[in-house]
Predict the 3D structure of the following.
Amino acid sequence: MTYCVAVKLNAGLVFLSDSRTNAGLDNISTFRKMIVYEKPGDRFMVLLSAGNLSISQSVREILQVEQLRDRKDPENADPITIWNAKSMFDAARVLGSAIRRVYQRDAEALKKADVDFNVSLVLGGQIRGEGMRLFQVYSAGNFIEATDETPYFQLGESKYGKPVLDRVLTPETPLAEAAKCVLVSMDSTIKSNLTVGLPLDLVVYEANTFKSDKIVCIDHDNPYYRMMHNSWGQKLREVFDSIEDPVWDDAHTDIPLKMPAARHEALKKISTPDEKLI
């Protein structure tokens, strides 16, 4: 399994991925799931991948050279690649084409081997002439785009790290705060799921720069990650302890738990085999 997250903010983009791949408890390996495409001054893009490793590696390899021709004028128009696309939308189309090419090549053989064609990708970045954009691309090559209402995408084991993203992230969130947020999200996932693990790849992109030097590989010895891991667990416990325990007896409290619900009855007890459930 894996966990990747990408966030689109007014100030820029943040990408984070783990590197654990497993095919059983005794077959755990490390494979990076992030690629950075940078042409300084012209374009900056990041690709995250999850799903079947052989499929995602094939897609990434083909994407380097994939060409998409204009259907309206296939003979005269120069083919679109990720290196000359005029928009991130067109770059996402090229990625979708690469996925379909791998499907045409491998899907039948995979089906015979009882293996699903399973791959999910996130492509985000900025091409000169337009703003930043972020897409999630599916196994069929189709895709959706992030919006202000949904400013992030997750791949893989998303459930453990989602709550903190929902509570913290808005389009106005500063990049440094967003980077901290996705690291907490990843740490929560690693804590609850053994199929996600270090090292991590983190990339932070500032809007309209078309390059980034904020790229880091995070392992067990990274001092910031160790500090964040210890602090988050400690502060979470402190917040938990600061919440008053529920009161069940007749002791006085300003915040009683055992109160009649305004619109619903309390759960019914079943005392004999003859009683109806409803």
